[in-house]
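One such shown below:

_____
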Amino acid sequence: MKWTEDRSTNVDDRRASGGSGGALVGGGLGTIIIAAIVFFLGGDPSAILSSGVSNSGAQTEQRALTESEKKIGEMVKMITAENEETWTKIFAENGLQYQPARVVLFRSNTDSGCGMAQSAMGPFYCPTDQSVYMDMSFFNELEQKFGAKVTEFTVAYVMAHEMGHHVQNLLGTLNETDKARRSGKYSEAQLNQISVATELQADFYAGVWSRITGDREKSFIEPGDLESAISAAEAVGDDNIQKRSQGYVNQESFTHGSSEQRKEWFMKGYNSGDIKQGDTFSQLSR
């Protein structure tokens, strides 16, 4: 990934203030599995965050960022800026106005509009405060535990996926899926399908972003970048996560899509570059 000169002011870097030492409450194996599969959570994660994580009240540690951490911060500001420019362009072309999301970098845990955020949850989007929350240590887990090939563009893909949830929020998609979850009209299996469609659409939007940004910023995407994004998408497929965490696959319990589905929709977004071709909900209901 070739860096651009663009930088966003919508990045809140809290890494100089360490987490308060909060711990998972009501834990056990169930909580650990939930923490693993909540990665790339679609919709409002407040239920899991509020019920599963508690702030111990310990004082936060203040420290200076290392040079490596500062560079990562600059990269995140650059990727955020490229998301803002691309989505502003796409929205304008469709007669809409884009409202930028905020990106919060943190270490260990931090407060969010959806409750206490903790690194064990993985990156997520909170619609309440329209913010993406990321503890960069997750990418070590992604590589070591889930088998992804991690590069700078892996970070770009993850952020683009979360920005995809922000796009869903702005377009009203998350509101509709939340209504469905709260309505009591759908079975658990049907709600899982809605969740899968939500996640795959965010992957599709990440692909659209990659294509349009690459067209807008020549040479932004370099050889091997798409492969690293696909590697990350496949690594967090439900089937791969289930195999690694419990040793078998239960397709009915999928909430994010299989490795193949995540790859397919990311590449559909990239190949088409057309936001209007991302109706994952109709596709999965056939």
Notes: The two ends are 37 Å apart (CA to CA). The first strand starts at residue 11 and ends at 13.
